Amino acid sequence: MSQTEPAFDPAAHVDPAASAEAPASVESSESRILALEAKNAELSDAFLRAKAEMENVRRRSEEEVSKARKFAVESFAESMLPVKDSMEAAIAMPDAPVEKVLEGVHATLRQLAVALERNKVQEINPPAGTRFDPHQHQAISMVPAEQDANTVVAVLQKGYLIVDRVMRPALVTVAAPK
Q1: Torsions phi, psi of 59, nearest 5?
Q2: Cβ-count burial 7-25 (b if 16+ within 10 Å, e if not)
Q3: d(Cα 123, Cα 117) in Å, to the nearest integer?
Q4: Phi and psi, residue 30, nearest 5°
Q5: How far apart are the C-alpha atoms of 134 and 170, rounded to whole Å?
Q6: φ, ψ of residue 156 in degrees (nearest 5)
Q7: pLDDT of residue 34
Q8: Cα torsion at 66, 68, 69, 70 (round to 10°)?
């Protein structure tokens, strides 16, 4: 810059048309900023509410799972109480005739079967000749038999399922290959 040139003055070089637009543009920017800040506050509030709701849902779910675990056996226990009552009644009569005791044992077994059925416990008791299923049967031995190989010859101990899950496989003997 030389000594003879005047210094640049930004106010002196403002275009009059542009200066009329500047306040409108600044007002428009300020109103836009205010609108965006309001929208930001609204979204932030909605986010915090949704986060709190999700935390409440998670907590309630954990409580329900905890209660389900604690009381899952309640229905089964309720159905087993009559069986226990029958056994206690039998013990309370030590001088009962054998026929009466046997009758009581059969009645108690029926109560037990009903209790198991009510709780979706099913027997695995394959008839002779049924194809051996390693998912439901456990082979104790293989014996020569007059039936197809790898079929059940006899059930040594019944197995049990809960719904479709094997609690205990049936212990069986299986026909040996010829």
Answers
A1: -65, -45
A2: eeeeeeeeeeeeeeeeeee
A3: 9
A4: -65, -45
A5: 10
A6: -90, -30
A7: 94
A8: 90
Distance CA 164, CA 133 (A): 14
- Give the tens place of pLDDT for each residue, 133-142: 999 999 999 9
pTM over 0.70: no
Mean pLDDT of the chain: 88
Q: How far is CA 12 from CA 1, 121, 143, in A?
A: 18, 96, 115
Q: What is the pLDDT of residues 54-96, one digit of tens each?
A: 999 999 999 999 988 888 888 889 999 999 999 999 899 989 9
DSSP annotation of 4 reads T
Contact 79, 118 (CB under 8 A): yes
Kindly state the DSSP code that residue 164 receives in the 8-state scheme.
T
Q: How many CB atoms lie within 10 A of CB 105?
A: 13
Sorted by sequence, the CB contacts under 8 Å of residue 148 that are 6+ apart come out as 129, 175
C-alpha span between 37 and 23 (Å, rounded):
21
